[in-house]
Amino acid sequence: MSLEERFRAERGRLDQEYRDFDDVAFLRRLARRIEDGTDEDWLRGFDFPEEIPERVVLQAPPGSPGARRPKRRAGRRGRRGPRNAWIVQRGTAPRDELARLCGDILRRDLSTVADFCEDYDATGARTFACLQYLSGRVDAAVYWWGFATGAEDALAAHCLALHATCQGQHTLTRLWNTYARWMGFSRGDLPGRDEVAPAHPAVPVGVPGNQELADRGYENGLPKGLLVR
Amino acid sequence: MTGTDERVGDGPLQQTLPESFEEFLKQRSRRFMKYAQSRMRNREDAEEAVSKAALLLHRKWDRITRHEKREAFAFHVLERVIIDYWRQQSRLDRVWDAALLLQRTAPVHYASDGIDQFGRLAEHDGLDQALDALETRSPRQAKCVRLRHMVGLSHDEIAVLLDISSTRAKNETWQGLRFLRDRLDPPMESGEGSAAS
């Protein structure tokens, strides 16, 4: 399909979607929201410019010489452009969030790696992928997360969404996030922070889940290099 | 059910909304909604973003109404709301709450809606990726392309919204299209072209 055909299809879809749009009904809903005052907190918190500028400055192309940068309050904005921050906790970098999630998954689901070794269990595949990710083998992690997602493991899809966010691939983030939600993923599926295992002396301190490794007899079963970040 | 299906009363709007504000939005809400949807890929999200932008404008309407370029300013506010919207989602955990609620109350609906949504995303996949890349490279070109080829505005209308000249709007749109074409329709090998000629 050519670019023109794609845009024609897009425009047709949007026209179709808003063919029945009732602007008066929209204004009534807006008026009701204003009367209810339910958005007051949000309105107060929004960084609305106190002074309306003479000339409206749009986001300048990044790196262009002499580009005027829109004024922002220090520390309020991370970066420009579309982002998919809704899957990331507020104030946390996606990379940190994913690393922490992998650690939590390892703590909770380490025993499933045995099932993965025996019959390619989906949960085990996801756990193994987290182990790979923490070991710095990102490509392998993405592969096994994809494998687990294909076997309908929603948390693996969430991991892929987080990873895409880390890479700045917003379209992929939307895709994996939708896929995770479609499979019924919810916050309740995230491993709890209270399931922290004490460190095992055989592997370096700080490696998540190493106590469970020892308890389940895996200290000699998995290469030690995989356990080190 | 979408937010737009909601039934509303028939009382006069002027009690809450100034007449000039109402007129302003009546003329532009549809195109703002289309633009928001082209970015957010979801009608509920688009309406929420446009509503919030309108709430912000209403709050400062006395000053905005005297502004020479209020349409461009309104569009600028909408842009900022769209960017802020995902952060807001994170703060309020609306996505998670909605997903949990839907799972509890109507799993069949949730599943079918999810399939529809997933299918729609898949349809947009290639174009979205290219537009994301263009947005990173040149946000203004991406806006021009969206407004021209997805919302269907003329170059003059785009120029007013983006506070640039009409020629600039045309030029930015053309450059944006060229970038997208290179990504989506890569040119044929030179050997094939010369063989054909």
Structural notes for this entry:
Chain A is mainly alpha-helical. Chain A has helices at residues 3-17, 23-36, 40-45, 94-109, 112-119, 122-134, 138-150, 154-167, 170-182, 210-215, 224-227. The relative contact order of chain A is 0.09. Helix content of chain A is 53%, strand content 0%. Chain B is mostly helical. The termini of chain B are far apart. Chain B has ten helices and no strands. The interface between A and B is large, with 68 and 93 residues.
On the 0-100 scale, what is the average pLDDT of chain A? 72
Instruction: Give, in order, the helices and strands of chain B.
Output: HHHHHHHHHH
- What Rg of chain B, in angstroms, do the CA atoms define? 20 Å
Shape of chain B: globular
Reported for the largest beta sheet of chain B, the result is: none
Residue windows where pLDDT falls under 50 for at least 5 positions of chain A? 56-86, 196-203, 219-229
Mean pLDDT of chain B: 74
In the CATH hierarchy, the architecture of the largest domain in chain B is Orthogonal Bundle
**What's the helix count of chain A?**
11
CATH fold name of the largest domain in chain B, please? Rna Polymerase Sigma Factor, Chain: A
Summed up, the domain count of chain B is 2
Q: How would you classify the helix and strand content of chain A by structural class?
A: mainly alpha
**What separation lies between the terminal Cα atoms of chain A?**
45 Å
- Hey, which two chains have the biggest interface? A-B, 68 and 93 residues
Q: Enumerate how many helices of chain B there are, as a single number.
A: 10
